[in-house]
What does this fold into?
Amino acid sequence: MNSKEIRERNLGNKIYLTAHIHMITPCNLSPRCSYCSLSSKFESVRAERDVLTIDEILHYIKKVEEVKEISSIILVGGSDLRGHDRAVIDVVKMARRITDAEIAIDVGAPLKVETLETLKDYSVTVYSSIETINRKAFTDAKPGDSLDMRIDLLNVLERLNMDIGTVIMNMGNEKDVYDSIEFLKRYQHLKYLYFSTFKPVKGTPWENRRAADIENTIKFIEHARQIFPDRHIALADVEIEGGSLSPWILQELDHGAGNTLAGILLYKYKTFNYIDSMLGLEKLGYEIVRRK
Ligand code: SF4
It folds into this structure.
């Protein structure tokens, strides 16, 4: 069976849209990740990831709550090797009072077991993005971060039977991506697997590194679908241009991606709203799920 057929058989044609709210916590890694806009020498580039105030987070959650096509809210923040436990719990409690949408958090590792238990009570999905299982590549990409802590977090989430999300980055080395997919087989609770495609950002240590190929990333999705028939798998960071559906979205769906895709991306100074465009999928036989 091809990957699209596997996805259709296991997940059907219902599409769930997410709203990503950036950044709920500051990034305290030092040095910052080599590819991240926060490591740019240009202030204007770093500002793309400025941290939201509590009032701004609240405002965004309320705004997203009104959009019934949004099934889940991903609260994204920067990392801290000492953890962001208190901030995460405060934001999740606030969000839960406002919305019945699913909530996920993505603030790197670590998080204390007690924090995770509280998040479990709130039915929160927790992301621990490994990016790559190749230690050398991880250290090159994320010199201030810890792969071991990210894996430890995955292990604790698995032990607590919590829904897990993770991201693998296509940095241009195929073997690393295949090895990373293989590594994730051990997590029965992996629910969301996203693939990002490295693109150089101005002023960062990796600004002159060659961009990875998005067509290859789609090939990895096709492969991952064969291994994980019923998980939510998709490209990360696909932008829709000119109000029409990005050809990448149609291509990833045809190669087994689905069924949770980005609907709205909210940053401190910018918002990208793809809902109208995503509704175009309904003409192609997909159903966009709406909350009551
Ligand atoms: S942990 Fe995230 S926010 Fe911090 S530098 Fe790395 S990619 Fe950027």
User: Anything to note?
Assistant: Residues 27, 29, 32-33, 36, 38, 78-79, 108, 142, 145 surround iron/sulfur cluster (CB under 6 Å). The chain has a mean pLDDT of 96. Strands lie at 14-22, 70-76, 102-106, 124-127, 164-170, 190-197, 232-235, 260-266, 271-273, 287-288.
